[in-house]
Amino acid sequence: MKKITLLYITGVLLGSMTSCTDGFEEINTNPNVVEKPTANYIFSKAQLDGLNNNYFFTNILECGGLVQHYATYKEASGVGDKYLSNEVYFSAYFNQAYPTALNETEIVINEVKNNPNDSNKLNIARIWKAYLYHRITDLYGDIPYSEAAKANSTQIFLPKYDTQEFIYKDLLKELEEAAAALDPAKPSFGKSDFIYDGDVAKWKKFSYSLMLRLGLRLTKVDPALAQTWVTKAIAGGVILNTADNAIMKYTDGPNDFNRNPVSLDSRRQDFTAGSYGTKNVEGGKLAKTFIDLLKSTADPRISVYAGVWQGTVQNTSPAVQKGFPNGTKIAPTPTEQAAYSEPNQSTVFRYDAPLVLISNAETNLYLAEAAARGWYAASDKDLYEKGVQASFLNMGIYGAAYTIPDAAPYLTANPYNAAGSFEAKMNQIHTQIYIALFVDEQEVYANWRRTGYPVLIPVNFPGNVTNGTIPRRFKYPTSEYSVNSTNLAEAVKRQGEDVFTTKIWWDK
Fold first, then answer.
1. How far apart (Å, rounded) are the C-alpha atoms in residues 250 and 398?
2. pTM for this model (two decimals)
């Protein structure tokens, strides 16, 4: 697919050249060049690239360490674990997002926007674009948006940075318009869409579910606006059933881009073949905070998520699970390392494991928050329990044997405090988000910054760059200071100092 991408770009460039020599065009036409982009193929590539973006650097080393899902004794890779600054890791997501998935999605939009029969392709691409941009702005704050990925179409090579307020409001508008314009009577991407096989009705629910997520993101900065968008999302119809869950499908080869990036990137860079927990490249383990939470509540999901290597086999029994403490640099011996939990390579770290983007577990829990706020006329207790039950059942995406069919014992042992304070309810709801969304560390990190739940105890590692507080954003890549310095300077002046402790717009 990467070869195809390069070929069609070359074709576009060649096609734009004029000739003053008879026969020049015919003589210099490469019959193997794709001169016109094929929207379906490019959209497939945009989906793959949108999720295969430095997973290990961004989700595990940065976000996963910050929210204490992951831990490591090493310093160079302990950026999130210990609040350290390393250009390699904090810049990776930004640097890869624009030239790949964002650019590819823009190409699709430009290719189909003038054909009324392609309206579904256009609007699905708009929804995908919103998904991609909310991921990057949640990490950095103000970013290039309205002028980004426009070098091909409008020759804008140095895009301005838009405010996150503008970006969020535009993303919500895009989701609303795109969802409303989807038409089941018209064709779609079909099998070129690896998430929904072109199912327009499911994309509509995805759009409203993403609207629900983004609407709630505004509760700190603009509660009234948050309520408006949450209400619209609920009215539009969010994902409530397993069949509507947004799940990216992967296979174990034949090429790496067919494999789940969660497992591929992580196992290639840290949890390598033959290490069996004793000699991980970056010393990565599941964190004590996360494992202790699961064990203290007798959460059966622990056996789906975690395993301890015993020889060449992972033992997934809850009794043997042990989390590694965050913020330490004491190197364990190989034998000691093997005693700590790692992600289960038969489930979340399997090469062909499905990857959840948004599920009914997340939406029901967010609806529980909306009900607790008085924005939704429903029982927050019932919605909370539906969210937990959905998460248990969704473990079945890794195989029927992993489905947890009965959540009643867990809910009885860990009951929802329906008579508690609003903050007590928020703590319970978002502790479940913290558990249910494991492996989507970017979303867990964003939701934690908004809500503060679950309560995490920061570490204070010597030499940390935040004075012992959990970072609130990523720094911009150093390359932007030389390549797009004027626009970046305006963003920094507006948003605040380019440091890890500066809060982005919705976090203030």
1. 12
2. 0.93
